[in-house]
Amino acid sequence: MGESEKSQVIQGAFWKFAERIAAQLVSLVVSIVLARLLSPMEYGTISLVMVFITIANVFVNSGFGQALIQKKDADSLDFSSVFYFSLGFTGLIYIALFFLAVPISEFYDMPILTPVLRVLAISVPIMGINSVQQAYVARKMQFRLFFYATFIGTAISAVVGISLAYAGFGVWALVAQTLTNNVIDTIVLQLTIKWKITREFSFERIKSLLSYGWKLLLQSLILQIYSSLRSLLIGKFYTTEDLSYYTKGNQFPELISSNIDTGINTALFPVMSKAQDSIERVKMMARKTTNFTSYVMSPILIGFMAVAEPFISLLLTDKWLPCVPYLRICCIILLFRAPQTAILQAIKAVGRSDTVLKVDVPIRVFAIIILCISLQHSVYVFAISEIVVTLFGTILYAIVAKQIINYSGSEVCYDFLYNVLMASVMGVVVFWIGRNLPFHPLSVMVIQVIMGTIIYIVMSILTNTSSFFEIKMMIGKMLVKHKKG
């Protein structure tokens, strides 16, 4: 990976990460305030409706956007064609949701679902427009615009939601908050990006982009259904308390990993797509990304495993300590995200969206078999079974990576397991410190974090780890640039 490409990926990942963190921090504050003002039933209504909206948005956000980014010579005609097609397609989805609202509300015996679903479904056509804008921004590597649009939309929607909640609008405060966020985000992007809608359309361009995008859309749909299935099964066959501990245990590691993963995904895919004619360059980018991402993520996830008990005790009180095993299991699973992400983006970048689907289908079939077996035992076994699924998926991705970009399994293992091993040594020491210090949990956690950081940095220097020195150099450049500014 060249210096300019590396810089593009890092800067893009930084701005995407900053966007997600800023949005989620504001959303966290808003959710706390709204939780005090609204009833659990009102939150439950929105949660139920959002299941249908989320599934509908899979058809909006997956496929065409990535096809536009991947296409080498995408022009105004491509973007305009996708814009008009998305507008028409999402309009049909809205009409379907509008008429399905009544039978859905009757099925759950909740009349309020009908108007709420019909109003909230307006977000689907809005997101259809937004998905084209985001594809343009990603293709042009203008990720700073994501940050501005998301932050402004989140902040304004927070004011709207809290104000309406205080005024006694109940569930409609949450509806207004969601819609305002989507509308403002879309308006800000439209005002800041250079691309403007033109009056041109081509069915041929749509067919070309659809041949690439429909496989990614189907893969995203399968993933969305599978991600919901685990929680539904726990809620069905075990207790609501088990589901709460499982969900809460997954929440914090996923929050950290998804933000970093989303940032790298968003920045890496367009850069790889530009280099799609050179398999060797794509492979080098995949290797560099695997190594760099695992170097950053491994100490965070393994360190999180080590400080899990004082962290949960401080943040959620001791009554939530049963979620600690699930948190640690989730951290182990997410360690494999680095190679999977890099390989997935490389496969998509060279135009092999068909392979993405062919790999994911056997993974999900295997996962359902494992789930059915583990479901007969306990929630812990059920959670651990996902580690087996993740290992199986990583092996399949490595096999495909060798076939498509000549990225061998031994190279994949070397690029991320070395960092995992180094972080594990640090994690053992940090865990031992936590077990043997008779202090307040906050003091213990602070000492653990400081010692873990020192140990990891020292090991990086002693082993001459390239990613450490790259990060050091980037920080140095940023400081110099800041001083000059």
Can you describe this structure?
This protein has 485 residues and is mainly alpha-helical. The protein has 2 domains: 1-221, no CATH class; 238-485, no CATH class. The chain is built from 19 helices and no strands. The protein has helices at 3-37, 40-61, 64-70, 76-107, 113-120, 123-139, 144-166, 171-192, 203-237, 240-274, 279-306, 308-316, 324-334, 337-349, 353-374, 379-405, 409-436, 441-462, 466-484. The mean pLDDT is 76. Keywords: Cell membrane, Membrane, Transmembrane, Transmembrane helix.
| Estimated share of beta-strand residues | under 5%
Largest pleated sheet: none
Query: How do the helices and strands follow one another from N- to C-terminus?
Result: HHHHHHHHHHHHHHHHHHH
What's the helical proportion of residues? over 70%
> How many distinct folded domains?
2
N→C terminal distance: 28 Å
Low-confidence stretches: none
Rg: 23 Å
Q: What would the average pLDDT be, to the nearest integer?
A: 76
Q: Identify the overall geometry.
A: globular
User: Care to count the β-strands?
Assistant: 0
Helix tally? 19
| Backbone structural class | mainly alpha
SSE inventory with pairings:
Elements: H1 3-37, H2 40-61, H3 64-70, H4 76-107, H5 113-120, H6 123-139, H7 144-166, H8 171-192, H9 203-237, H10 240-274, H11 279-306, H12 308-316, H13 324-334, H14 337-349, H15 353-374, H16 379-405, H17 409-436, H18 441-462, H19 466-484
Helix pairs in contact: 1-7, 1-10, 2-4, 2-5, 2-6, 2-9, 3-6, 3-9, 4-5, 4-6, 4-9, 6-8, 7-8, 9-15, 10-11, 10-13, 10-14, 11-13, 11-14, 11-17, 12-18, 13-16, 14-16, 15-16, 17-18
Membrane topology: Multi-pass membrane protein
Family: Belongs to the polysaccharide synthase family.
GO cellular component, one term: plasma membrane
